[in-house]
Amino acid sequence: MQLRPKYRLVEHFAEIDDPRIERTKRHKLIDILTIAILGMICGADSWAGMESFSKAKHQW
Hints:
By secondary structure, the protein is mostly helical. It has a domain at 27-60. The protein has three helices and no strands. The chain has helices at residues 9-12, 29-41, 47-56. Helix 2 crosses helix 3. The longest helix has 13 residues, at 29-41. It starts with 8 loop residues before the first helix and ends with a helix.
């Protein structure tokens, strides 16, 4: 059986368990991971930088 490579972030991180308490979740874990990864690629070097990146890309 040949395995196909995972190209999408959603597929790649699908197996990560979300350790957060269910009632405190405001955002999907994959959304948080995606913002963090793309923010870092675009030069965000802190949580505040990632927040600024996410707000700038909100419509996207």
